[in-house]
Amino acid sequence: MKLEYSIIVPVYNESQTIERCLRSLLNQTMARESYEILVIDDGSTDGTDRIAKKYPVEYYFQANQGAASARNLGARYARGKIILFTDADCEVTANWIEEMVIPFGDPEVIGVKGFYRTSQRELIARFVQKEYEAKSRYLLKSKYIDFVDTYSAAYRKDVFLKAGGFDTQFRTASAEDCDLSYQLSIQGYKMVANPHAVVFHMHPDSLRSYCKTKFRNAFWRVRTYRKNRQKIIKDCHTPVVLKLQMFLLFLIGVLSGLHVFTRIHLPITLTAAILFIGSTIPFAFRTVFSDWQVALFSPLLAIFRTTAYLCGLSTNVLLIVIRRFCDALGSVQVSLKQDQNN
Question: Could you give all domains of the chain from N- to C-terminal order, each with its CATH number?
Fold first, then answer.
């Protein structure tokens, strides 16, 4: 059979997970001759290379430059007309490749997004899964989507390369996938979601790792929104309630700070707090029948999530302001020096 598809897996110190990932990719309903697997090692030092080389894959090594760079390198080496991405901490289901490529039967479709599940039993991991499922329901309302995340993604290689691939300024795996799919959507390309293309993913399993992930994603999302301003107000994968919660928690924080000087804002603060808790009830109600523990703790976890988001966004914005101030100050100093010389 002719080789049609290239699966690209970026790795960085993934010795604990890469073997399960590769085994799942080799155990596919798709004929083995029709696809290749490329492992792009982004500077691992933990023996990931030894494990990967035990399997019939194309292995490439580069000095550490980030997941975006590793994926772009894989796309350049890929021989298939369709390139698929997944991550080393994922295990794909047996029909994953087959399901991911079905939508390309429509010549107008250039990108496909799969879905993920988890078999983890930790409370936080279960909350992350339910949170993801809520976003998925929102996303499936759109015929064409503007968000394809790289744990389960597929693109026509020629379109991917023409678009320049992932922005390598995203040094960590964070929002480079969102950035690319936003750009392709704005340019008029059509992408779709296939809920039958399933990947099992390792979610954050502690509150600390969950908040850290949300902080990182929000931090880098600032760059994404600066490049794709049309998506700030609305996209197909961010429920409006999440943006409402961010606004309400920000308002609560500002008004709470003002209480040092006056208590006139107390009724507004209490109203915002009630609205915030109220906004978590629909999620809890939908979840209570499938996982009552997640439903019970979801309002508290929503507070942690929203706080992490706000901190990530605020940190990046603050750094931008500081950088611009320093640039302006530097320009003033140069002008004064020139005036003195004249």
Answer: 5-229 (3.90.550.10), 240-331 (no CATH)
d(Cα 18, Cα 24) in Å, to the nearest integer?
Answer: 10
Please say whether the beta carbons of 229 and 243 come within 8 A: no
- The beta-strand segments (E) located in the chain are 5-11, 35-41, 58-61, 82-86, 90-92, 109-117, 152-156, 190-201
Predicted local distance difference test score (pLDDT) of residue 285? 94
Q: Which residue has the tokens 């750094």?
A: 319
Q: Is the pLDDT of residue 259 over 80?
A: no
Run of H or E including 6: strand 5-11
Least confident interval from 71-85, 129-143, 190-204: 129-143
Is the model's pLDDT at 324 over the cut of 90? Answer: no
pLDDT of residue 239: 84
Structure-token pair, residue 296: 């019970």
Tokens at 196, concatenated: 């039958």
d(CA 265, CA 28) in angstroms, rounded, equals: 60
Pairing of strands 152-156, 109-117: antiparallel
Report residue 21 as tokens. 């990932």
SS3 labels along 94-159: CCHHHHHHHHHHCCCEEEEEEEEECCCCCHHHHHHHHHHHHHHHHHCCCCCCCCCCCCEEEEEHHH
Q: How far apart are CA 157 and CA 160, in angstroms?
A: 5
pLDDT digits (tens, 9 = 90+) for 261-280: 666 678 888 899 999 999 99
Looking at residue 229, what is its pLDDT? 87
Residue 26, H or E segment: helix 18-26
264: its two tokens: 């006139």
Instruction: Kindly report whether the global pTM for this prediction surpasses the value 0.85.
Output: yes
Residue entry with tokens 């079905």: 102
Q: What is the average pLDDT across 162-176? A: 86
Residues 172 and 67 sit within 8 Å (Cβ to Cβ): yes
